[in-house]
Amino acid sequence: MNTNLPQTIKLIAEITGCTPEAANAAAHALNKQGLIADPFRTQGIVLRRNAAAGTWSRQPLSELEQQAIAWDASCKRAQALADLIQFEAGEGRGLMRVQVDGDRLLVTVQITHTEQWAAWRRYLGITREQPNPLPLPHAFAGDGHRNGVAVSLIAYDAPQTEVREVAAATMPYRHDGAVYDLALPLRDREGDVWDYAQTSVTGMPLLTRRGGTGERCSLANLVWQLGPVETVREPQAVPGIREATVSEFVTHMAAQDPKQLERDRVAARAGTDITAHSEVSA
Predict the structure, then answer these.
(1) Where is the domain boundary, 133, 153, 168?
(2) Strand pairing of 230-231 and 186-187?
(3) Half-sphere exposure (CA, 13 Å, Cβ side) for 124?
């Protein structure tokens, strides 16, 4: 690490009046371009002369130098991963910010559906979900690795989204961060539709594929091999109103009680007479 970085960060913040985070980002960007001098950086290869043999050989790196080289490589991998995430996570995926912290990343996202939380967990290799309650009550968090880089993920609005989806589901089941309604069909990424069959002794739902042989597959295997899996909300039939023809209406009325029809006609005429009288009086 460049020992001039801390002083450079402090100087940028004092001169520009920006936040410490902005000063840190600016200093690291300058250092990445080689614009900040590093007093301990080796500018060439150190060779050692073997006087007896009359040959030169490379000076072995010290343990501290090896650690410094490994640290620089780790930081470069972290920055490369940050650039990749920002490139791949287009609009609609909820990405808020990717922050590089040395050889680590902090990714913050906003969740509107539990499948987003599950997708981000898979994408970033999140294997350890931090226990609740968190200091941030409106977020889930987890840690993992992607491309050899340690990643921390914070998902805002994820707890509220999960509660809402669980309440709306008839048979909710939470797996890998997503909430599935087992009362509804599920569709895999290849378009096949799966229905809930039963629950295994371990508590894992077992599904059967429509049009298949009836062989059962666990929800975990389905998500792992053919995910993402989405709920199929089949359209509900909406009762409509069909206009009757004149002959249909006449036939229907003729089938009614003739006495009741006469009473309806008298009532209708009486209502018309009263309305007409009111209009004349006005």
Answers:
(1) 168
(2) antiparallel
(3) 33
Q: What is the pLDDT of residues 236-272, one digit of tens each?
A: 454 555 555 656 655 666 666 666 666 666 665 665 4
Within-domain flag for 51 = no
Q: Does 131 reside within a domain? A: yes
> Residues 49-54: what's their mean pLDDT?
76
Domain match, 156 and 187 both = no
User: Measured between alpha carbons, how far is residue 175 from residues 67, 86, 89, 227 in Å?
Assistant: 40, 27, 23, 12
98 strand-pairing partners: 107
Query: Same domain, yes or no, for 141 and 196?
Result: no
Q: d(Cα 107, Cα 159) in Å, to the nearest integer? A: 17
Answer for the pair 191, 146: CB distance below 8 angstroms, yes or no: no
User: Do 67 and 81 belong together in one domain?
Assistant: yes
Element (H, E) at 66: helix 63-88
Residue 42 clears pLDDT 80, i.e. is over it? no
Q: Whole domain around residue 29: which residue ranges?
A: 1-35
Instruction: Provide the pLDDT for residue 267.
Output: 61
